[in-house]
Amino acid sequence: MTINTQIVWLFILAIPIACISWTVTHEEIFKEPREWCVKCSASAKTLLTRKLFYLFTCEYCFSHYITIFFIILCDYKLLLTDWRGFLIAGFSLVFTANVYMSLFGLLRQAIKKEKVEIKKIESEEKMD
Where are the domains of the chain? Predict the structure, then answer.
């Protein structure tokens, strides 16, 4: 693969990694399992068990495992063609996916703020 193709793969492959990581760790569809994992990560007796359950509550941590899955699935390597290419690809994908998730989080926060402001303005108009 040329370096240009590798870079395109980096930015595109990070999208499903970010989507899956965000959905599992933030969205309503996984709320109950996530709450159970939060409880288990706080109250489990062993350190390993606590960390295992924490994995499903942190988008950064979870994105590492989703990245490993996608690297294996797509046999994606970055810059080098041996095991070092897998390592570089892994950390690059995690970084890129987390940039996407951070931007998405900021966008959602801005949208929520605008909705609250609009409701406030609408309620003030109704009072007048």
Answer: 3-101
Count other Cβ atoms within 10 Å, centred on residue 86.
Answer: 17
**What is the pTM assigned to this prediction?**
0.84
> Are 59 and 101 contacting, i.e. CB atoms less than 8 angstroms apart?
yes
Nearest Cα to Cα of residue 87 among 75, 98, 78: 78
Could you give the 3-state DSSP secondary structure of residue 82? coil
Torsion of CA 90, 95, 101, 107, to 10 degrees: -150
| Start-to-end CA span in the chain (Å) | 65
56: phi then psi, degrees, rounded to nearest 5: -85, 0
The per-residue pLDDT for range 42-75, each reduced to its tens digit, is: 999 999 999 999 999 999 999 999 999 999 999 9
R_g of the chain computed on alpha carbons:
19
